[in-house]
Amino acid sequence: MHHCIVCQLPKTNAKKKKKQKKKKKKRRRRRQWCLSTSPQRFFSTYLTPTMPYANQPTVKITELTDENVKFVIENTDLAVTNSLRRVFMSEVPTIAIDWIQIDANSSVLHDEFIAHRVGLIPLTSDDIVDKLQYSRDCTCDDFCPECSVELTMDVRCTEDQTRHVTSRDLLSNNPRVIPVTSRSRDNDPNDYVEQDDILLVKLRKGQELRLRAYAKKGFGKEHAKWNPTAGVSFEYDPDNALRHTVYPRPEEWPKSEYSEIEEDEVQAPYDPNGKPERFFYNVESCGSLRPETIVMSALAVLKKKLSDLQTQLSHEIQNDVLTIN
Amino acid sequence: MAGEGEKKPVLEMVQADGADEGCVTFVLHDEDHTLGNSLRYLIMKNGDVDFCGYTITHPSESKINFRIQTRGGVAATEPLRRGLNELSDVCQHVLNTFQVSLRVRSEQSPPVSCREEPAINGLILICG
């Protein structure tokens, strides 16, 4: 009994008899293939070592600075690239202050106002965030160096002049986790970098602010303070060939920096069979993580989510099998 | 069929009575469009799948109902398993390509600012 080499099904007899009627001089290898296979079935079984239709995206970095990374992804689909954008913003873990004990506050802003502002200060999380555990997973009682970083602030205004309380007054017990704005002058005191400290509150003579805080690991889904990006720019089809946007007057709109049409053309001609092909990203970091770290961490997080789901699925299948049997 | 006792289940399978194993709704907890849409796209590319869709039942709850209907007697868990593998492969591929591109870039251009230097030295050490 002959079997199709692709789908391993036995070859049907009906078509075989029909073929036998014709005299064929050449012995063609195609006879080994199943004659009753539909094209869709054939392609899905033949072209699938690991991935169907070879979803092998290419990545090209066009610009890389301390603050942002611009890159282009091709040969993949809108769904996957959009998921990547969502993960950049909401699921990349960073470190931010999440627990504050205010010992003294005689400023004009109330306690929770200041606590909210202190929580939003970005802290340098490069390299540390991978080693830190989530507080909820840690075996300690309250906080420990494995899952948190302690920061303190003690400011009292003693002069007649108004005292600005800034992020520079926040002192950390781990020198690698400090407010992002405090980082610039540490490396090179002579190199004046244009980076102002974040203003928290202003104190008059006699007012003071004293607090103790713990910074924890978290991600943007829980609270925006853990979002490592300042913004993620995501673009595809810069000349609107797919007409995903319909402009009432296209000539009013400025051209994209990735535009590939002539100066006098306003939009590319309509392509009804087109699909989004090239995706242009510009990931701008707020300073807590390096931009390339944001991208790599996002991909690692996405892979981890998928592998967790895979193990869960295999457990479910096993449970099913056990209950049926 | 589902559930693990104390821990919250991450994935549950719900099947209508009388339906074969080709039509299953998976309830994925703590998920949203991030995984839902990309999984749906990859599973739809599978030739065995008749229907694949996901829905967020209510915006206040972070769970999705992910439905797969297959034809030809294939179990519905098979396209899901393959889709998860494929998406994981795509992520790994993008990660590798990105790292290669970073390395190429750091070898080409000299460091821009003194703060960038430690990171680039680290990268050159890795590639040997």
Automatic annotation (TrEMBL), chain A:
One of its GO terms (molecular function) is DNA-directed RNA polymerase activity. It is found in: Nucleus. It comes from the Eukaryota. Residues 68-312 form the DNA-directed RNA polymerase RpoA/D/Rpb3-type domain. Keywords: DNA-directed RNA polymerase, Nucleus, Phosphoprotein, Transcription. Pfam families: RNA_pol_A_bac, RNA_pol_L. Its main location: nucleus. GO terms for biological process: transcription by RNA polymerase II. One of its GO terms (cellular component) is RNA polymerase II, core complex. Residues 13-31 have a biased composition (Basic residues). InterPro entries: DNA-dir_RNA_pol_insert, DNA-dir_RNA_pol_RpoA/D/Rpb3, RBP11-like, RNAP_Rpo3/Rpb3/RPAC1, RNApol_insert_sf, Rpo3/RPB3_RNA_Pol_subunit. Residues 9-31 are annotated as: Disordered. PANTHER family: DNA-DIRECTED RNA POLYMERASE, DNA-DIRECTED RNA POLYMERASE II SUBUNIT RPB3. Core component of RNA polymerase II (Pol II), a DNA-dependent RNA polymerase which synthesizes mRNA precursors and many functional non-coding RNAs using the four ribonucleoside triphosphates as substrates. Belongs to the archaeal Rpo3/eukaryotic RPB3 RNA polymerase subunit family. This is DNA-directed RNA polymerase II subunit RPB3.
Automatic annotation (TrEMBL), chain B:
Residues 23-96 form the DNA-directed RNA polymerase RBP11-like dimerisation domain. GO terms for molecular function: DNA binding; DNA-directed RNA polymerase activity; protein dimerization activity. One of its GO terms (biological process) is transcription elongation by RNA polymerase I. It comes from Scophthalmus maximus. The keyword Signal does not apply. One of its GO terms (cellular component) is RNA polymerase I complex. CDD domains: RNAP_I_III_AC19 (cd07029). This is DNA-directed RNA polymerases I and III subunit RPAC2. It is found in: Nucleus. The lineage of its organism: Eukaryota, Metazoa, Chordata, Craniata, Vertebrata. Belongs to the archaeal Rpo11/eukaryotic RPB11/RPC19 RNA polymerase subunit family. Keywords: DNA-directed RNA polymerase, Nucleus, Transcription. It comes from the Eukaryota.
